[in-house]
Automatic annotation (TrEMBL):
<dbReference type="InterPro" id="IPR003912">
    <property type="entry name" value="Protea_act_rcpt"/>
</dbReference>
<keyword id="KW-0807">Transducer</keyword>
<dbReference type="Pfam" id="PF00001">
    <property type="entry name" value="7tm_1"/>
</dbReference>
<keyword id="KW-1003">Cell membrane</keyword>
<feature type="transmembrane region" description="Helical">
    <location>
        <begin position="26"/>
        <end position="48"/>
    </location>
</feature>
<keyword id="KW-0812">Transmembrane</keyword>
<protein>
    <recommendedName>
        <fullName>G-protein coupled receptors family 1 profile domain-containing protein</fullName>
    </recommendedName>
</protein>
<keyword id="KW-0675">Receptor</keyword>
<feature type="transmembrane region" description="Helical">
    <location>
        <begin position="60"/>
        <end position="79"/>
    </location>
</feature>
<dbReference type="GO" id="GO:0015057">
    <property type="term" value="F:thrombin-activated receptor activity"/>
</dbReference>
<feature type="transmembrane region" description="Helical">
    <location>
        <begin position="191"/>
        <end position="216"/>
    </location>
</feature>
<dbReference type="InterPro" id="IPR000276">
    <property type="entry name" value="GPCR_Rhodpsn"/>
</dbReference>
<feature type="transmembrane region" description="Helical">
    <location>
        <begin position="99"/>
        <end position="120"/>
    </location>
</feature>
<dbReference type="GO" id="GO:0035025">
    <property type="term" value="P:positive regulation of Rho protein signal transduction"/>
</dbReference>
<feature type="domain" description="G-protein coupled receptors family 1 profile">
    <location>
        <begin position="41"/>
        <end position="292"/>
    </location>
</feature>
<keyword id="KW-0297">G-protein coupled receptor</keyword>
<keyword id="KW-0472">Membrane</keyword>
Length: 329
């Protein structure tokens, strides 16, 4: 985001961003690739989760929620691609701009919270398996948790729903969408600080710390036990999840905080870097199916069984069921 006062003219750094055709083209190409992979990967995952996976454990419910958020982002990206290719010129009106922005950021933060929930579910399933499996309300808790996640995200992002996020740039004869924010969007600098604090610390840093704790604890627990193939696979999956969490979301939120502080208090900008980091954060939406499903040998076996590519022996089926019982929660 870039804060802007009621001045009639933008600074040179912001104008240079809007004139940079190469950056806009690179971002558009990345969004195109993400959209294609997103639709294919998450569409297949949703079909498998809804119609080929039973029972619906809490982990599966969280994965369905995560896949829904990814598909929502995939539906919004074509509008962002058109916006970029038109030279940052939004042609669909202020209401559509607010809605697409809400979908875009809602996906990011709901994905972060859902990944935290999956981490907690795995942590409880491995660290306290007996007490965890005796609970009869796990599915209800998972559904309520998903609803609370969305409620929290929408509550924090409420200013985006009630503000005109478009801005006419007379120098370039374009109308931007969320690339120039008026300081009048919020009543005071304190309100801006609370808004940014909620986004960066409540919706990113806290879930990040919880996710780190859960997966590091799981890795330590499994690595300290006798080593088996399935435990090694679980450890590798946890490491990959943490890496993607750090690489996709951390740069964007750190740059958001740094850019906002520099813009509000020092009149400087890191918006070019933030814009690129926001673009790469979308990669998570097409990596989720590979991390949670296709990286798993069990899921590949299920996929082959469904598509009649390879029949599973009874021994393979028994091993697969045992692994699912241990790690799917």
């Amino acid at each position: 985001m870039t804060g802007n006062s009621s001045k009639l003219h933008l600074d040179n750094a912001t104008l240079s961003l809007f004139r940079d055709v190469n950056t806009s083209t690179v971002i558009s190409v990345i969004y195109m690739l993400v959209t294609i992979i997103n639709w294919v990967g998450n569409g297949l995952s949703m079909w498998l989760l809804l119609f080929r996976t039973s029972p619906k454990t809490p982990s599966i419910i969280f994965m369905i929620n995560l896949t829904l958020t990814d598909l929502a982002l995939g539906s919004a990206l074509p509008f962002q691609i058109d916006y970029q290719l038109q030279g940052y010129n939004w042609r669909l009106g202020s209401n559509m701009c607010s809605f697409m922005t809400l979908v875009f950021y809602g996906n990011m933060y709901c994905s972060i919270l859902t990944m935290m929930a999956i981490g907690i579910d795995r942590y409880l399933g491995i660290m306290k398996p007996m007490r965890f499996r005796k609970s009869k309300k796990r599915k209800s808790v998972a559904v309520i948790s998903c609803l609370l996640m969305w409620g929290l995200v929408l509550g924090v992002l409420y200013p985006l729903m009630t503000t005109d996020l478009t801005y006419k740039v007379p120098e370039l004869q374009i109308t931007t969408c969320f690339d120039v924010l008026k300081l009048s969007m919020l009543p005071s600098v304190g309100a801006w600080a609370a808004f940014l604090f909620s986004m960066v610390f409540l919706l990113f840093l806290f879930p990040f710390c919880v996710t780190m704790f859960c997966y590091v604890s799981v890795i330590y627990k499994l690595s300290s036990d006798s080593k088996t193939v399935q435990k090694g696979r679980a450890i590798r999956l946890a490491v990959v999840v943490l890496l993607v969490f750090v690489l996709c979301f951390a740069p964007n939120n750190i740059l958001l905080l740094a850019h906002s502080v520099l813009r509000l208090f020092y009149g400087k900008s890191l918006y070019m870097a933030y814009k690129l980091s926001l673009c790469f954060s979308c990669l998570n939406s097409c990596l989720d199916p590979f991390i949670y499903y296709f990286a798993s040998k069990d899921f590949r076996q299920k996929l082959r069984e469904i598509m009649n590519i390879q029949s599973l022996s009874s021994a393979d089926s028994i091993r697969m069921e045992n692994k699912e019982t241990l790690y799917s929660g």
